[in-house]
Amino acid sequence: MDVAQIFSNFIDHWFHTTESFMDAGGPVLWWLASVAAIMWCLMIERFLYVNITFPKERQRWVAAWRHRSHCCSWSSIAIRDGWLFQAQLKLNQRLMLIKGLITICPMLGLLGTVTGMIAVFDVMANQGNSDVRSMAGGIAMATFPTLGGMVIALTGLFAHSRLVKACLRRELSLEKELRTMR
């Protein structure tokens, strides 16, 4: 077996395992995965902006401020405050949307719990308490979305709080640098 064959087998196994897990969790788990994918795409975009794009914009603002001849005039202070406001807007862009998506995840998990328990009660009503195998599918459909919603929300909260702190640090650093010049 070559490396490509091993990698292909690994991908096939991973895909089959993931698909089995998602099917056991029901349709709510697919919705939850969609929300998580959107949330993480937005979060990755924000991390890239904060660490790659914003430093370039920061250098541009600092260079423009250094080239000003009068830094204490009313117009200069207004321009500096405008740049600081613009930096704040750009840094905090989409953070509330990300926070909203994080908040939705546990709620979707609870929706999965309710739909899974409805499936369990349906089995109990139709077949009685003796069909344990049929009830297990409903219990899995009830627990997997709850677990997924909590895991996604906790990891999202951690990443979001780190992102908010990084944005605040960069904003304060820019403000300090623009205020201490001259």
UniProtKB/TrEMBL annotation:
Main localization (coarse): membrane
Domain MotA/TolQ/ExbB proton channel residue range list: 87-173
Gene source species: Veronia pacifica
Membrane-protein topology: Multi-pass membrane protein
PANTHER family attached to this UniProt entry: PROTEIN TOLQ, TONB2 ENERGY TRANSDUCTION SYSTEM INNER MEMBRANE COMPONENT EXBB
Family of the protein in this entry: Belongs to the exbB/tolQ family.
Entry's transmembrane regions: 28-49, 96-119, 139-160
Pfam families noted in UniProt: MotA_ExbB
Listed name of the protein: MotA/TolQ/ExbB proton channel domain-containing protein
